[in-house]
Amino acid sequence: MIVFATFRIAVRALKRNTLRTLLTMLGIIIGVGAVIAAISITNGAKSQVEAQIASLGQNVILILSGNVTRGGFSMGFGSAGTLTQEDFDSIRREIPGVNAATPEVRAFSQIAAGNQNINSQVFGVGADYFDIRSWPVANGAPFTETDVRNANKVVLLGQTSARTLFGGADAVGEIVRIKSAPFTVVGILAPKGMSMSGSTDQDDLLIVPYTSAMKRLTGATTFRSFSVQTTSAEAMPNVQQEIIELLRQRHRIGPGRDDDFIVRTQQEITEAATATSRIMTILLGAIAGVSLIVGGIGIMNIMLVSVTERTREIGLRMSVGARGKDILLQFLIEAVTLSIVGGAIGILLGVGSSRILSLKMGWVTLTSPESILMAFLFSAAIGIFFGFYPARKAARLDPIDALRYE
Amino acid sequence: MPAVIKLENFSKTYYTGAVDVHAVRGVSLEIQPGEFVAVMGASGSGKSTLMNTIGCLDRPTAGKYWLDGVDVGELNRDELADLRNEKIGFVFQGFNLLSRTSALENVELPMLYSRPGVGAAHQRDRALKALEIVGLSDRADHHPNQLSGGQQQRVAIARALVNNPRLLLADEPTGNLDSRTSIEIMGVFQNLNAQGMTVVMVTHELDIAHYSTRMVIMRDGRIVSDEGVRDRLFAPEELRKLDLEQQAVQLA
């Protein structure tokens, strides 16, 4: 018998029970849809993390202040305030292979300009910051070492902050009051876009010399973190080791005691992110596998019901000359049609829902053709695997018993 | 020409647990081309087993069966299926039509399993021709639930005819029909038989058996009587009588 004719018989049989067919496919639809959507979301997040890590700059080592633990709760990196100006100066002075370095402090302050009054993130950094982050200034110029040394009241605005404070007008040369201290705008930064979580706008910030930030805004004397850029990728392990030794020595940490700071290379951060996404992928795969198997069992169940219901039809087909193989093929094609159509609808659902997520929630999603192909092949395989037993049961029926079946 | 059916000392025993059931005990029977045979018997007489074997749905446990010269006992499941497809047309008591499938497609069904395959256009032509033979060419697109019982049985007969079988095998073909429609269906069989088709029919109605040319009566797995029908009934005549009777009833 021609496969095409069998396919037509299968489709007709499925059409006969539209609701049941849909309900049976639902398992596969939801399974495949969830997998496609989840893969799109993780892929999107992964690409964002990678972009984020790359935006730290080339060959960058991060030094974070250790975290304070209070009552068993970690207060977060940088909360201990163990990094000092002297630490920073000695890293710059004593460690070879350091190309550029900047400390970082953060404050959340009230900002006013003209009649605008907002609360925004203020970063205090050194003059090297813009080079390390490869963050160009779109308009005006970055502040200089002199500005840092003198704790000058100069500020660079992120794109979003510039827009909220000054509208479309050119802000360079204008005055911005941060915690009521007047800062002169020297430049506007190039746009950077949304962060990886999609929840924060990286262009909604102000950047001032760290000296000014510590003196006029935070009053702190320690830093949250340092960013150090090495001269080359090869120099990184050495520089990292030397920084650790230097800081242990400066912080008088005896042998066998834990560091009160954390040193991470970009590579380590990347590896951590990759490991996280790998775990996510495995987890998703497991959930997907379970839901597809549940869907497959649904198909098997309905196919068994269908075989029982159509016992007389099977008997008739056999009596007019259908071989066991023809019957097997008919029911197998029916099961595969169920699972493939379900898979196709699931793919549409998954792609559609990830589109909606990126449109409505601003999440970055990446639908890969490989994942679609995989989902499709997997659902076909599910159909064959779970359809085989009922189909074989049908094919092995005795024509006489089948014809007589009530 | 060889006999269409040749049974030689055919026996069928079902081994079901403790007791062996001897459904048929040594039957020899020969049916020549062009015969119209009615097989009669009470339930348990072995006539169904005999029919299943003649229809190549089952194989004898002892003895020999040749269908159109082919030794059926030596065939496997697939070869039996091919033989049914090629040489036998089945007509059942319950019609066994596929629901929500047009009459035409129901008639096309056996050709789906023909080896070598039959092209779609050719299938349609042959199915239409078969429907024409049973007088239903104007109902080709109707579904079974849109047809009367008699019409459904005609579709089933067309389906049985579509592969030009050597043998038409009918199992209680009038069991679900009223007397008038039963006579009409017997008319169809008599027409086909007149054109040379060999017909074997199982029935328990004596008057229906009288439309055949030869009556085989079975009891306890054996043939107890096998003789020609003497006062044979003919469908057109019987229909006329039935009309007159009905008129008489109306007049009275």
Most extensive interface, residues per chain? A-B, 23 and 25 residues
Structural class, judged by helices and strands of chain B?
Answer: alpha/beta
Element-by-element helix/strand order of chain A: HHEEEEHEEHEHEHEEEHEEHEHHHHH
Give the overall form of chain A: elongated
Contiguous runs where pLDDT drops below 50 for at least 5 residues of chain B: none
Rounded to an integer in angstroms, the radius of gyration calculated over CA atoms of chain B is 19 Å
Total number of domains of chain B: 1
Strand percent estimate of chain B: 25-35%
Strand order of the largest sheet of chain B: 6-7-8-3-9-10
- CATH fold group of chain B: Rossmann fold
Mean pLDDT of chain A: 85
- Give the number of DSSP strands of chain B: 10
Shape of chain B: globular
| Number of strand segments of chain A | 14
Largest sheet of chain A: 6 strands, mixed, barrel
What's the gist of this structure?
The complex is a heterodimer of chains A (406) and B (252). Chain A has 406 residues and is of the alpha+beta class.
What does this structure look like?
The complex is a heterodimer of chains A (406) and B (252). Chain A is an alpha+beta fold and 406 residues long. Chain A has 2 domains: 3-51 and 272-404, no CATH class; 83-259, no CATH class. Chain A contains 13 helices and 14 strands. In chain A, helix 2 (18-55) runs antiparallel to helix 9 (266-309), helix 2 (18-55) packs across helix 11 (324-361) and helix 9 packs parallel to helix 12 (369-395). The mean pLDDT of chain A is 85. Chain B has 252 residues and is α/β, with parallel strands linked by helices. Chain B has one domain: P-loop containing nucleotide triphosphate hydrolases (Rossmann fold). Chain B contains 8 helices and 10 strands. Chain B has helices spanning 47-54, 77-87, 103-112, 120-133, 149-161, 179-194, 206-209, 235-251, and strands at 5-16, 19-31, 36-41, 62-67, 70-71, 88-91, 167-171, 198-202, 214-219, 222-228. In chain B, the strands form 2 sheets. Chain B has a 6-stranded mixed β-sheet with strand order 6-7-8-3-9-10, with helices on both faces. A 4-stranded antiparallel β-sheet of chain B has the order 2-1-4-5, covered by helices on one side. In chain B, a hairpin with a 2-residue loop joins strand 1 and strand 2 (19-31). Chain B starts with a strand and ends with a helix.
